[in-house]
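Translate structure to sequence.
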């Protein structure tokens, strides 16, 4: 009799323990009733929350890493933030995210070379709601100092969209601006261009552009002539075409170091976005690059 009582007590303890464990486990979220970006985030990241350390998740950044670092990048701790929900058609949508790698304290790394990444998560609608069908934690790299830049979304055509990130920075007085373009289609995101060069200004490094505005007198100890680059581009999408209008000036020395006449830059460049590719179809980019 005592043995039966002990056995019964033991069974009760095991059952209670199982109930407690089950109660502590998080219920897997399989569907979202709406396209609210915070609600959609719960599907690829069940423990995610819009504030605090819950934004830090483990993501796969290997698509952006070199071959030598692919294994380590596959499990990267990053602060993940939803940026846009793009409805591709009546039953398909994409969630675009920003992922900023974090350090030991779960704070995004803040260095000049610390860029972020754009990710894309795809959903399909059924009678039960919106269901996650595929994901790409890292599609494109952009920005510096844990800031991917100014982002936006443009519709290119039926079921085809572009997500853009415009960012810029300076290195030892050489400043530049670039435009990253990611294409969105049903179930897939593609890096269309890692960085269309929009602008360059090297006056902080050489002062050559300022020297053009205030030429030194004949008896001054002038620096040898150097290249002046002062070009800025404004861009916009018209359908599936990216138009970039450049304005500025360019003055370059010849092989003997003599500064050539300043060129006025006023031209337009046209790129065409097709699934998986951004192709230059008209003009040429006047920015010489670093």
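Result:
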């Amino acid at each position: 009799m005592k043995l039966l009582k002990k056995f019964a007590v033991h069974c009760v303890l095991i059952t209670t323990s199982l109930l407690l464990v089950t109660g502590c486990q998080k219920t897997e979220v399989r569907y979202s009733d709406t396209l609210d970006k915070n609600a959609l985030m719960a599907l690829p990241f069940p423990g995610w929350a819009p504030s605090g350390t819950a934004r830090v998740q483990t993501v796969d950044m290997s698509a952006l890493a070199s071959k030598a670092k692919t294994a380590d990048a596959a499990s990267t701790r990053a602060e993940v933030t939803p940026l846009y929900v793009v409805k591709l058609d009546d039953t398909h949508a994409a969630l675009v995210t920003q992922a900023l790698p974090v350090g030991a304290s779960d704070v995004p790394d803040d260095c000049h070379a610390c860029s972020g990444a754009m990710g894309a998560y795809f959903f399909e609608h059924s009678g039960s709601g919106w269901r996650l069908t595929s994901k790409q934690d890292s599609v494109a790299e952009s920005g510096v100092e844990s800031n991917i830049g100014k982002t936006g979304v443009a519709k290119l055509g039926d079921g085809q969209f572009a997500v853009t990130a415009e960012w810029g920075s300076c290195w030892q007085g050489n400043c530049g601006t670039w435009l990253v373009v990611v294409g969105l289609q049903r179930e897939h995101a593609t890096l269309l261009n890692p960085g269309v060069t929009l602008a360059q200004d090297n006056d902080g490094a050489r002062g050559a552009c300022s020297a053009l505005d205030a030429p030194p007198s004949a008896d001054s100890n002038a620096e040898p002539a150097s290249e002046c680059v002062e070009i800025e581009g404004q861009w916009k999408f018209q359908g599936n075409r990216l138009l970039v209008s450049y304005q500025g000036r360019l003055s370059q020395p010849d092989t003997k170091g003599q500064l050539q006449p300043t060129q006025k830059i006023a031209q337009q460049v046209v790129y065409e976005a097709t699934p998986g590719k951004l192709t230059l179809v008209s003009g040429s980019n006047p920015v010489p690059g670093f």
